[in-house]
Amino acid sequence: MLLGLIRLKHPANEILRGMRLFLFHELFHISQQMAVPLSDGISQFPEVIAAVDRDADLFALIAECEYTSIHFASNVKDYPSFLTSLMEISINSIWSFLSTSSSNRIERRRFERILSSFALLNLITKSSENLTDYLRLFITSAIVNVKGPRQYLRNDRVIFDLNFPADDIFIAVYHNYELQWFSSNHNTTGSDLVKYLKLKEFEKFKETINRIFSTMKY
């Protein structure tokens, strides 16, 4: 993860913050006995592990917010902006794990976790700057599923084959009791996402998903 964050050329303080977010996330998993043999095979329960990851991400964001407020209070000018910046760093941290992985495949759960983070960030930018609204979005989060790339099992994990042509890629987002569908927007398609994911071009991937999600309802 550290090498991945460095390759993204982020400032040292953001790299350290990303590492703390990762540690807080893992500490939450340890409290759930996710670090012991009991967790073996948990990847066979994708909906459960996705929910666990969402809660771990929320715990990490709150813990980092509290840590920074205590030790680097001057860095927290207002909580909404700070939480947004933490969300962006969290996305970068998740993406950084791709730096050492294969360009030909990605675990479906990881791909959908990246997309759900971008969906949440998009919803946050559309909300008011009221801290209560921000926290409500973090707590309710957004459930994201992807249909399109060919998938197969590898070590009991569902894998997307990024080499398989996927002309029709659909993204389903469920949030605030509403189901929304996305496939293309502003001359951008879901296939572009797979292309930039395969090439590991973060900025182009980010621009593409933000264009696709630009019509998302708050």
In short:
With 218 residues, this protein is an alpha+beta fold. Helices cover 55% and strands 15% of the residues.
Task: Outline the fold blueprint.
Layout: H1 2-7, H2 12-31, H3 46-71, H4 79-96, E1 105-107, H5 108-126, H6 131-140, E2 143-147, E3 151-154, E4 157-161, E5 170-175, E6 178-182, E7 184-185, E8 188-189, H7 190-199, H8 202-212
Antiparallel strand pairs: 1-4, 2-5, 3-4, 5-6, 7-8
Helix pairs in contact: 2-3, 2-4, 3-4, 4-5, 7-8
Uncertain runs with pLDDT below 50, 5 residues or more? none
* Helix proportion range: 55-70%
What's the SSE pattern?
Answer: HHHHEHHEEEEEEEHH
Shape, per Cα inertia axes: globular
Widest sheet: strand ordering: 1-4-3
Overall residue-averaged pLDDT value: 82
In total, the number of strands is 8
Whole-Å distance between the termini? 32 Å
Q: What is the count of helical runs?
A: 8
Strand content: 5-15%
Structure description:
Strand 3 and strand 4 form a beta hairpin. The two termini are 32 Å apart. The chain is an alpha+beta fold. It has helices spanning 2-7, 12-31, 46-71, 79-96, 108-126, 131-140, 190-199, 202-212, and strands at residues 105-107, 143-147, 151-154, 157-161, 170-175, 178-182, 184-185, 188-189. The relative contact order is 0.11. 55% of the residues lie in helices and 15% in strands. It has a three-stranded antiparallel sheet with strand order 1-4-3. A three-stranded antiparallel sheet has the order 2-5-6. Strands 7-8 form a two-stranded antiparallel ribbon. The protein has one domain.
